[in-house]
Amino acid sequence: MNGSALINANPVVHERKERVTRREVHDSSAEPIDALEVFDHVRDIKDPEHPYSLEQLKVVTEEAITVDDKKSHVMVVFTPTVQHCSMATVIGLCIRVQLMRCLPPRFKIDIKVAPGSHASETAVNKQLNDKERIAAALENPNLSELVEDCLAPASY
Amino acid sequence: MDGTPLSSSWLVHLRAYVNTDLPSSHQIEGRDAIAELISKNALSLPRLVSEMGDILTSTDAVMRARGILLLGELWMHFVAKPFDATILHHFAAFFAARLEDWHSLHGALIGSLALLKREKHVGVVDNDDAKALLKSALENVEVQALVQEDRMFCLEFFECLLVGYPEAISSHGTLFVERLCGIIDGEKDPRCLLLGFHIVELAAQIFPDPAGYIGSVIEDLFDLLSCYFPISFTPPPDDNWGITREDLSVALMHCLGATNLFAEFSIPFLLDKLSSSLKNAKLDSLKFLGFCVSRYGAEELRNHSTAIWMALKQELFSSYKVEEAISKERDNQTFHEALNCLQACLKLQAGNKDDMLSLERNSLLELVVEDPFINDFFDCISGHLIQTSARVTVCSTGNGDIALERALTTIKETGLILTMAAKASPASCFAVTHRIFPNLFNLLRPGICIKGSDDEKKFEGIPVKSSLWFPDDVLLTVLEVIRLIIEGVKGLADSVLKLQGTYSDVKWIGPLQLNSEDLLMSFIAITVSGLQNRMDIDAILIDRTWNVGVAGLQAVGSFPPQLSILSRVQYDYLFSFLKYITLSKSEATSLWNRTVDAIRVICTAEEHFSCQGLGSMFRDSLIASLLKEVDNYSESLPVLCSLKALSVLCTGGAEILTNSTRKLTELLCEDLKKFVRIASEEDNTVKRILPLSQGLLDYILPCCMKVDMDVEVLLGLAVNLWHIVENFPEDGLLKDSRDNIQVLQNCLGIVQICVFHCDAPSQRYLMLEIVGPFVEATSHIFGSLGLKDIWLIGFFSSMIISLRPSIHIPRAECVLHRLCAGAVSLSCGSVNLIASEAVGCLVNKWQSNGVEMQVSNGISLSIAEALDLIIKGEWVSTALCNQTGTACLEPEKALVLKMGCIKLLGYAGKGLAIRGHIGVSDIAMLLLSLVHCKKILVDAKQKNLLQFLWPNDEERLSIASAAADALGFIAKDLGSSGWRQSHLVIKPLHQQRFFVSMLAPLELVLKESEEQERIILYYAFANLISSIPANVILMESKRVFPFVLESLSALSSAEMFSTSLSSVLLVLSAILVDKNGAELASRHLSAVVGRLQSLIQYQYSVTVRETSLLCLGTLVALPYARVFPFRTQVLKSLTNALDDPKRSVRKEAVRCRRAWELLTR
Amino acid sequence: MEMDVVQELQGHSDRVWSVAWRPDSGISGRPSMLASCSGDKTVRIWQCSSSQDLFIQHWSCVAVLDGMHQRTVRSCEWSPDGKLLATASFDGTTAIWENVGGDFECVASLEGHENEVKSVSWNCSGTLLATCGRDKSVWIWELQPGNEFECTSVLHGHSQDVKMVLWHPCEDILVSASYDNSIKAWIEDKDREDWVCAQTLSDSWGHTSTVWTVSFDASGHRLVSCSDDLSLKIWDSHSNLLSEGNLWKHLCTISGYHDRTIFSVHWSKASGLIATGAGDDCIRIFSEESNEKSTLGGDLTYKMVLKKEKAHITDVNCVRWHPQEASLLASAGDDGVVKIWKVAGESLY
């Protein structure tokens, strides 16, 4: 972004996990929202500073997502590519925004960086879960533009 | 001569062109304007040049350059315009001179190239001009110094010369070749390189002489070229010439293969590169090697054969040379490339015709067949056999036994190599087969314990004899290898024969002939070994044995007769074995299918070589015995199997098919006669007639498509069956059991196909034969129909269905009447539909040829009248055994009857609709008023029928929806309507016509109707619209749109309409993406949005929810100003969809939401 | 004790951040009036058709204040006399609206904060205005004649952005709550003629995460604060406020009730009940354990007397008691809805 050097110039890129195609159940039985579904929402988010998806960078994994449809709660734990990734908050922001758009409003969303995966872990977590700050951030043109870029699906 | 007045005008253009201050667009306009004048002959080139004098000679280099360029481009523009020799000559000289002026070079090059590009018929420059141009170019142009574009022109220039003026080139050979080297040297641009390679290729072919121009510099040239190998080039992302690495590589390959002068350098070079660790280098050098060697010829090969073989071996065996190599998966690509290379080389091996045994010393062939690797092959086989011979082996695949794995790999690979070698050329085939087969079988024979005294050749004996024996994995693999080789050689034999004709030399096949007995026996034995049902062997393995066995036999047996490897005796043996398998009751169907197919292949093999062999004789005998099987209905082979086998063999020819069908006809008739008299279920007749009729229908008759069978037979079959049915005893004991109905259905199918394939005359004859009896037989009251009558109606209907349009039907009125009655008559349950279809066909073809249908009393009946006959519906009372009205019937029967009528009307209507006859509207209106349950739209003549069909309150819904379905059926396209294609009269766009004709009435009745009545009307609409192709609807979108919107809300009321709902939604989605449709939508946007918003909550159907979300999503494509106001509301409504119980819906919702989200940005 | 919705006020197209009753609501027949501010960049004024009979009330939107703020309006507060409304916005400005005969016009725009302004508050006399924001600073403005506002002081001290400022109901003491987990009390140093931090409530008794809201009881002796650490804290002050260095001491902590962040707490002037709104969509009401000890300043306890599940379908951002009418409560949520509640139960009287 704007010419400044990358925080992590050459990240490790992992294989995309192939899309699980679930068999369509054509009865009226409900299909509760689960980790995989949430993962499908966030896996293709583009990393703010690499041309790769969060999945390819193993920033998000299905395993690191916990969902409780009954309690309407989602917890996403993500792992920044490097210890002092200044982009961590942006990534978290992207994840939150995406989930706010994709999940029904009843859901409470918690987003955290994986323990020990970031230098200022607590600070980042606190910021990511302060709704006021999120709201403010999204009204900041540069930031929201950056977020939109990351969220723009390749397949649109 | 062109007059001065215009000169002024074109001088403007001229100045525009040479004026470099102007934007290039002006310059181009200027040029084109001049070109225009010239092509209109309003201006001549000489005149132009003379006018340009001051420009062309100007001291201003730029000005001069522009001038020349103009001329150059003009010539390029007129490459196809005839000019006389003098002008061409002048300009050739002109450009040749200009090539000296490096300022003007660009234009001069284009000009010269343009001159050389010309075709003969429009006049070309002569040799001397070409020479002049070449000379000047060679002396003045420093190609490498030029920019890419000019280099291109230069190369093309040389290319043209090489193609068109070789002697011009040779006149300046030395200098040219010198330049050529210069050009190739370090060229980086792919386009130029491509041309460069081609030029070298051309030049090399023009100067083949070792002492010639190319020969003299060959080594330098090769050094220059070899730098490019292996080509490494990845097209740039913005590449717009589409040149790939492949193209360059191929070009280089052809270049190196162009002359064997290269051989002494290229072959060692490539062999050296072969040892490279780069995969690309490896693959390319193998490709190049194969190609070049086959171009250079046997001579060159001889000089390098040892080196080549050594190198190839490296590649071929690398996979198991290394210890742990088996574990790491092999590099198949290289392996196969190496194989191809080997084959390419071996193709050159001519071999010594008279004495094939004596192989030329150190020829590649000798090296191959004498190579120790073959011994390894034998060793590992014999080694394995020894260690296993002791015990009876049942091989267990995939046990971790490394040794075994090793053995298998060795065998497979060697097998592939030997196969490649064997099928390369007769000589190599001889060498290989002679080398390996005797030893091989010496090893195998004890394993395959089959060769024995003659009495053991009885196959019944074999399973017993070899019951203990089952091939283990190694043995199987070996046999697979043998099969591969045989198949390879067979392919070779075919092609050899095609080349040399019948008088081909057959020595080379000798070794195979010598070993034919063993080949035959091994394949038979292995096939048989799979037959013993042994629990301890898994099915896959058994299947493998059959695969190898039968495929092997097929290969052995299908050699062209001239090169046959089997003796007469062996053929008989083979055949009787195959026959044994075919006829033996075998639950092993995969074996059975393979065998039958093998027989077909073997029998047809000889036909390709126009020579009567044993095959056809055998086939005939087999067919005979199959028929016999069916005839005396022996339990041993299921009738269906026999018929299937027959059908396979019958593809051999019309005659065979005809004969066997004739025979089968007899049998069928025979059975049918007995059939009606069956007293007890024990009787075999049912047991046979069921599969017999089935088989005829499913296997035999379909062959008519492939081979045109004698219509006599078909007609005969139909007529005979008819007569039998006709003569059914009234008191026939025919019971209405499931079997019997099945038999009936089969027979009807048979009759239909037969008649369908009959030509017009025989169909006419048929009608004369049957109409009379039919009418007589069905004259009595319908109410009390016996099963005989059902058969009659069924048969008759099936025949009517298959008639060609041109066929007269005597007493048509009667026929129509009876068929209608039959279609609805309760006692005809199983043939109702067929009768309805017959009626449909009848009205469809009625009078279509302009000739009117004969009626009993000789007066003819027009289609309109025929239609009235249906509409008036007197036949109903016939069906009702003459009681008027349904009063006498118990309600459910009455309903069934009415439903029957509605179906019939559907068929009749469709018949008319397809031929595009307006009559359909009468029927449609009748149906519509049933849907609507109001008697508008119908006139007097329909009253009677309508009266009868009129529903009471209980029936209302079922009648209405049945009628709606019937309307849908009329609109459907033939394919999906389930109406068999039977010589129907089809008018293009008939669907569209009908659909459009329905819109107005629908609008009308909708206005008339109450809120809740509409629902069913919209259901009808949904039926119509879902049967019509989208493009048709789009043409009418303006009128359709309101309906669509309305039905969306109407149909959402009840669950039963959910499918209609989704089909309407699909239509909507189609409309929304259509241009005009989109306009409509944006005009009624709030309505659309409203409907969709409620539908995304529709609880009964997931598809409805998904589709409506889809539609909602597409709306954002509409004009922003219109859509945006809905944004907030839509997003709000979507939050519920995000929480849909179904995942698929949620996904769609997310997409949709995203689309609307983005509206702000 | 129970509570039911009197009316849902629909209109905002984005989350509602905060609501404010006009102080004189219901006094001498004046209709109750409520201001709500939202992420849709607007402020809405709601008025109750009848202030007399609270049983047949109807609320309607009487004004929409838009076009002024470029971003979310985070908080809004009425001046004590109810004539002015101050609104703080993420666009960095604080706007002052004057209510002239029902119409509201923007009479002043206070600029100075580097970025988001998050809270605004009037002092009891209505002469001073305080604002705070993400720039970690607290600003104090003085109201000059003619709706001129002059910044008299910019207070630094918080290490993170300041979530809320609130004036003492009867003294000129300012309290600020911050993302740095602390609460600070500011008083004017007469000698230095400037405002200084008199106390920082962040000791071992303090909150362990962001402090979102603070609220005084009627007397101003007690202060309640709510936090992201899922607890409420009651702070008590001694008799004479200004003399001593330490103004407040931790009285008690109310925890174990809330499951998610507590965004809002409000102490009813009328009934003394404490209401909270939290990220678990619930509204809770607490009342003081009525036993003698407490009056002796002994260990006093507060118990939850009501928990309203699903008060909103989303986070509850703000709860405010009616200044006069003890049974009325207003709440605002992420669902863009403002709700008027009627609370019934003996502890009201």
Automatic annotation (TrEMBL), chain A:
Residues of the MIP18 family-like domain: 38-98
Its keywords, alphabetically, are:
Chromosome partition
Pfam families associated with the record: FeS_assembly_P
An example of a Gene Ontology BP annotation on this entry? chromosome segregation
According to the record, the segments passing through the membrane are none
Give the record's family classification: Belongs to the MIP18 family.
What is the designated name of this protein? MIP18 family-like domain-containing protein
UniProtKB/TrEMBL annotation, chain B:
Q: InterPro entries, from UniProt?
A: ARM-like, ARM-type_fold, MMS19, MMS19_C, MMS19_N
A Gene Ontology cellular component where this protein is annotated is:
nucleus
Question: Superkingdom, according to UniProt?
Answer: Eukaryota
Q: Which GO terms describe its biological process?
A: DNA repair; iron-sulfur cluster assembly; protein maturation
Respond yes or no to whether keyword Repeat is given for this record: yes
Q: Where is the MMS19 C-terminal domain?
A: 737-1115
Q: Which UniProt keywords apply?
A: DNA damage, DNA repair, Nucleus, Repeat
Q: Where in the cell is it found?
A: Nucleus
Q: Where is the MMS19 N-terminal domain?
A: 49-317
> What is stated as this protein's family in its record?
Belongs to the MET18/MMS19 family.
Checking PANTHER family in the record gives: DNA REPAIR/TRANSCRIPTION PROTEIN MET18/MMS19, MMS19 NUCLEOTIDE EXCISION REPAIR PROTEIN HOMOLOG
User: What is the protein's known function?
Assistant: Key component of the cytosolic iron-sulfur protein assembly (CIA) complex, a multiprotein complex that mediates the incorporation of iron-sulfur cluster into apoproteins specifically involved in DNA metabolism and genomic integrity. In the CIA complex, MMS19 acts as an adapter between early-acting CIA components and a subset of cellular target iron-sulfur proteins.
Q: What is this protein called?
A: MMS19 nucleotide excision repair protein
Q: Organism classification, top ranks?
A: Eukaryota, Viridiplantae, Streptophyta, Embryophyta, Tracheophyta
Automatic annotation (TrEMBL), chain C:
Q: Which domain of life is it from?
A: Eukaryota
Q: Which InterPro entries match?
A: CIAO1/Cia1, WD40/YVTN_repeat-like_dom_sf, WD40_PAC1, WD40_repeat_CS, WD40_repeat_dom_sf, WD40_rpt
Gene3D superfamilies, from UniProt? YVTN repeat-like/Quinoprotein amine dehydrogenase (2.130.10.10)
GO BP terms, alphabetized: iron-sulfur cluster assembly
> Would you indicate the residue range of the signal peptide?
none
Q: Which UniProt keywords apply?
A: Repeat, WD repeat
Q: Name one Pfam family in it.
A: WD40
PROSITE patterns xrefs: WD_REPEATS_1, WD_REPEATS_2, WD_REPEATS_REGION
The family database entries (SMART domains) matched by this protein are listed as: WD40
Chain positions of WD repeats: 9-56, 66-98, 110-151, 155-186, 204-236, 309-349
Keyword check for Repeat: yes
Keyword DNA damage belongs to the record: no
Mind naming one GO cellular-component term on file for this protein? cytosolic [4Fe-4S] assembly targeting complex
Q: Which HAMAP family match?
A: ciao1 (MF_03037)
The job of this chain, per UniProt, is described as: Essential component of the cytosolic iron-sulfur (Fe/S) protein assembly machinery. Required for the maturation of extramitochondrial Fe/S proteins.
Q: Which family does it belong to?
A: Belongs to the WD repeat CIA1 family.
* Name assigned to this protein: Probable cytosolic iron-sulfur protein assembly protein CIAO1 homolog
